[in-house]
From TrEMBL:
Its main location: membrane. Coiled coil: none annotated. Belongs to the major facilitator superfamily. EmrB family. The keyword RNA-binding does not apply. It is a multi-pass membrane protein. NCBIfam families: efflux_EmrB. Keywords: Cell membrane, Membrane, Transmembrane, Transmembrane helix, Transport. This is MFS transporter. The chain crosses the membrane at residues 12-35, 55-72, 79-97, 109-126, 138-159, 165-186, 223-246, 267-291, 297-315, 327-348, 354-375, 452-470. PANTHER family: MAJOR FACILITATOR SUPERFAMILY MULTIDRUG TRANSPORTER MFSC. CDD domains: MFS_LmrB_MDR_like. InterPro entries: EmrB-like (IPR004638), MFS (IPR011701), MFS_dom (IPR020846), MFS_trans_sf (IPR036259).
Length: 491
């Protein structure tokens, strides 16, 4: 009876946390399609408007590394109410903002709440379920983090066709407030006793380290790799991050425990996830450019193209979780990555008139493949570390996802831009008199996008090669401790 009551309470907590996480993740992609409308509304340039997404990513990169400390220091209720409170305030202010700096500030406030929410949910999932049932639980988590951002463009496109961009915030506001109120009454007060203290120098080094890398790679796509801003940000990021890591090895209570990379399967899972993240961003960034700029398709129909893939991921995530519990991550990752490699390669063969139906089918199959990889690989890696190190594992996983996403975005946009310019020069030099300049521009961009998708194919192929080394943890055996003397401090 007591066990049933505890199980019901766990599912209740997870339902509340997942509702909050869904709203937070959905919000992260809603604004992308709205940037042109915001530029017109505030009379600003694209580089300025881009800060609404870059700034969001920066705050996440700075906040997420502290989540391991926060999860151990404060209760689930305290962190949830703080996260949803910050997110709700940011959403309300953003919907009323008459000046761009206020909109940007409120957007960053949203990000600070979102950055706390995701690691908190992962930590509750991993600690609440035994290893043999984590796949099913993480499959539901996968539904949240993949379905929400996937439907974002479709929802945003529909809203922008009927209302102004502020409606994107007005829609989210009542939902976030409702989740906040439900959490306030349903989550019980807990007493958390912890002597952990946040090392202030580590926080500063982490902020400059991850923040510098994220800003540098995010800016490289538009400013170019040779920009002093990009080079300076990356240099600050590398130096600060190196200093941060060295300091963590010297602290008795590190902000992030990098020693967990000594567990081979955790390190392998992070490697596969980072490479796949970089490849995954190719379709998320390049497909809207191809569909809207080259094909002239509306933002709504551009977002609609991605909806079947989102529905497939929503349908497959719980199923993939159950399959993971039964068969492990290796076979799922091999099948999923094979499908990802194949569909990404097909995207490297686009033309100026590739059928819309072909794009929908390939995009959907690609998401099917990715749904079989992301959660199983991540869960398998986290299963191989001791439970008391789970907050550090989830914090590192979320941080590296942000960093690899920024690297992928910067790299792929740079490849597309440079290759498009090269093709434009070549086609202009070989053009016959009377050739329409617009034809050259269109063909150059198509070829540039194709080359970029080919790079993404190679990245997915690398992830496929790494997947052959995945091993399932034997739940009948204890994990070999990395450093027993140190780990007593966490007990």
């Amino acid at each position: 009876m007591q066990a049933t009551k505890q199980s019901s309470r766990l599912y209740l907590i997870l339902a509340v946390l997942m509702a909050g996480a869904f709203v937070a993740v959905l919000n992260s992609t809603l604004l992308n399609i709205a940037l042109p409308s915001i530029m017109t509304s505030f009379n600003i340039e694209a580089n300025t408007a881009q800060w609404l997404t870059t700034g969001y990513m920066l705050v996440n990169g700075i906040m997420i590394p502290t989540s391991a400390f926060l999860v151990q220091k404060f209760s689930t209720r305290q962190l949830f109410l703080t996260a949803m409170g910050l997110f709700s305030i940011g959403t309300i202010v953003a919907g009323q903002a008459e000046l761009f700096p206020i909109l940007l500030g409120s957007r960053m406030l949203q990000a600070s709440g979102s950055a706390i929410m995701m690691p908190l949910l992962m930590n509750v999932l991993l600690n609440g379920f035994p290893i043999e049932k984590r796949g099913q639980a993480m499959g539901i988590f996968g539904l949240v983090i993949t379905f929400a951002p996937a439907i974002g463009p479709t929802l945003s496109g529909w809203v922008l066709e009927h209302y102004e961009w502020r409606m994107l915030f007005h829609i989210v506001t009542p939902i976030s407030l409702l989740v906040l109120v439900i959490g306030f009454f349903l989550l019980k007060k807990e007493t958390v006793t912890s002597s952990l203290r946040l090392d202030q120098l580590s926080l500063v080094l982490s902020s400059f380290g991850f923040g510098g890398l994220l800003y540098g790679f995010s800016s490289a796509g538009s400013a170019g790799w040779g920009s002093l801003t990009v080079i300076g940000a990356l240099a600050i990021g590398v130096i600060s991050l190196t200093s941060f890591i060295i300091r963590q090895f010297r602290l008795d209570e590190p902000m992030l425990e990098f020693r967990i990379f000594k567990y081979p399967m955790f390190a392998l899972s992070q490697g596969i996830s980072m490479v796949l993240n970089m490849s995954m961003f190719s379709a998320m960034i390049l497909m809207p450019i191809y569909v809207q700029t080259i094909r002239g398709i509306s933002p709504f129909h551009s977002g609609l193209l991605m909806l079947p893939g989102a529905l497939v991921m929503a349908f497959m995530s719980p199923i993939t979780g159950r399959l993971f519990d039964r068969f492990g991550a290796r076979i799922l990752a091999m099948i999923g990555l094979s499908l990802t490699v194949l569909t990404t390669f097909f995207f490297s063969r686009l033309t100026a008139d590739t059928a819309y139906s072909f794009l929908v089918i390939m995009y959907t199959l690609r998401f099917l493949g990715i749904s079989m990889v992301m959660m199983p690989v991540m869960t398998n890696g986290l299963n191989h570390i001791p439970q008391h190190l789970t907050p550090h594992g989830t914090a590192l996983n979320n941080t590296l996802s942000q960093v690899s996403g920024a690297i992928g975005s910067g790299l792929l946009v740079t490849v597309m831009t440079s290759r498009t310019a090269d093709y434009a020069k070549e086609l202009t030099a070989n053009a016959t008199p009377g050739t329409n300049p617009q034809t050259i521009i269109t063909q150059s961009m198509v070829e540039g996008i194709n080359d970029t998708f080919f790079i993404a194919t190679l990245l997915a192929l690398l992830a496929l090669g790494l997947s052959f080394f995945i091993k399932k943890r034997d739940v009948t055996q204890e994990i070999v401790q990395v450093e027993p003397a140190r780990e007593k401090k966490y007990a």
